[in-house]
Amino acid sequence: MLYPHYDVLGKWDTPSFDDKTRGVLAARLHVIPERRFFTQHEWTLLDSIVARVMPQPERAQPIPIVPWIDDMLSSNRGEGFRNDNMPPMRDAWRAGLAAIDLESHRRHGCGFVELDAASCDTLLRAIERNQVDAAIWTTVPARGFFIDILVKTAAGIYYSHPAAWSEIGFGGPASPRGYVRLGFDERDAWEAKEAR
What we know:
Layout: H1 19-30, H2 40-53, H3 66-74, H4 89-108, H5 117-128, H6 142-158, H7 162-168
Helix pairs in contact: 4-6
């Protein structure tokens, strides 16, 4: 670990965070959205996939990822664009998850959530390499859905969580304090220092 003694939340009562920033952080930490978009099966399936893509075995409380994806889809919020080979975001998620489960059934005779860890990883690597049954992936491209939508979104949500900020040495939002030293290998006094 590069920043073993760093805790970005240790700056809670310093000039690095103002009331608005603390409010946003408190909501991210303590107000986890309920399931509103995914079916229970889709939620469980995505949770199983995310557990393989972004494993968190060292955390007693893993960073919640699926609730925030569900919240994004329920609110129909996205990045403001979509790839020309993808259906609308909500449709892409439903089709992509269904296709992953169908690939699992075709290859292993059971759904993804029933697979052992090694089989899950092998299946996801095949999807990443686009080594799939094209008849299953008619609505979304396998690799495009997996890399450009699922993995990108899961990683974005993971690294938007304050617990992940500490492990990468991120000092938190620039507001209200701001960052002054922006050059290569420069850091402000309140930023984390790498362990050597």
